[in-house]
Amino acid sequence: MRIDIITCLPRLLESPFNDSILKRAREKNLVTVEVHDLRDYTVDPHRTTDDYAFGGGAGMVMMIEPIHRCILSLTAKAKYDDIIYMSPDGEVLTQSLANQLSMKENLILLCGHYKGVDERVRQHLITREISIGDYVLSGGELAAAVVSDAIIRLIPGVLSDESSALTDSFQDGILAPEVYTRPAEYKGWTVPGVLLSGNPALIDAWRQENALERTKKRRPGLFQGI
User: Fold this and answer.
1) What's the CA gap between 211 and 167, in Å, rounded?
2) Distances (CA, A) of 167 to 118, 147, 209, 211, 212
3) 21 touches 159 (CB < 8 A)
4) DSSP H/E element including 213
5) Of the candidates 87, 48, 54, the residue with the CA atom closest to the CA atom of residue 69
6) At residue 135, what are phi and psi to the nearest 5 degrees?
7) Per-domain residue ranges for the chain?
8) Which of 33, 96, 193, 209 is the most buried (most CB within 10 A)?
9) DSSP H or E stretch at residue 147
10) Which CATH superfamily is domain 167-224 in?
């Protein structure tokens, strides 16, 4: 898989892809992540990427020209399955959507900033818009990192135990069950005995029941959809 991220603040994306699971995925050549500085696609000496909004009002708007140049440069070299704009009013990221995107080969993620991008970018250049929640961030960089993380960890070979991703919360529409590790007793706080039984069938049954109970208590909206 290849993910190209377009941003006017590339340094915000240095850390997320240079540590832990995402770093190992890149080192294994399971995914290529390239961050493109939008300012490299400007033509004025000040490398301007934003301008005042027509009609007035507070805040600046990202200009269509450098964004279009960058997208044209990328699409001239490869075919992309989706060109995604990170936007608070886009389709909300879910595990199901992450699963779908993890099957793609090439993606472009466009990070908004300021008051957003010129609407013509969304009308003519973008194929999909994604939000990571009903709130506003200073820019789309953190959202792009979240989407990338959710996708990349699902790629076969990224996690040392591929079954781990299959048992995550939301994969089957419910929350994951409780988990415990050593010691079995700490300050009088104990681990459920069934987990120490060594009986796989009993453990699986307990985990399923526990997952359903947690979902019903913590996320009743999910439970109602089961």
Assistant:
1) 11
2) 41, 19, 14, 11, 13
3) yes
4) helix 200-218
5) 48
6) -160, 170
7) 2-152, 167-224
8) 33
9) helix 141-152
10) tRNA(m1g37)methyltransferase, domain 2 (1.10.1270.20)
Long-range contacts (CB closer than 8 Å, 24 or more residues apart) made by 102-106: 102/1, 102/151, 102/152, 102/154, 102/155, 104/1, 105/1, 105/2, 105/81, 106/1, 106/2, 106/3, 106/4, 106/78, 106/79, 106/80, 106/81
d(CA 89, CA 105): 25
Strands (E), the chain: 2-7, 32-37, 50-52, 60-62, 82-92, 106-111, 128-131, 185-186, 189-190
What lies within 8 Å, CB to CB, of 188 at 6+ separation is none
Most confident stretch, 111-120, 155-164, 170-179? 111-120
Closest CA to 98 of 50, 45, 152, 59: 152
Q: Residue 115 corresponds to which amino acid?
A: K
Class of domain 2-152: alpha beta
Percent of the chain with pLDDT over 90: 88
State both tokens at 103. Answer: 């099957």
Residue 222: per-residue pLDDT? 85
Alpha-carbon gap, residue 110 to 143, rounded angstroms? 10
The 10s digit of each residue's pLDDT in 135-147 is 999 999 999 999 9
Q: Pick from 177, 99, 88, 175: which is nearest to 134 by CA?
A: 88
Distance of CA 160 to the CA centre of its chain: 20
Cβ atoms of 66 and 74 within 8 Å: the answer is no
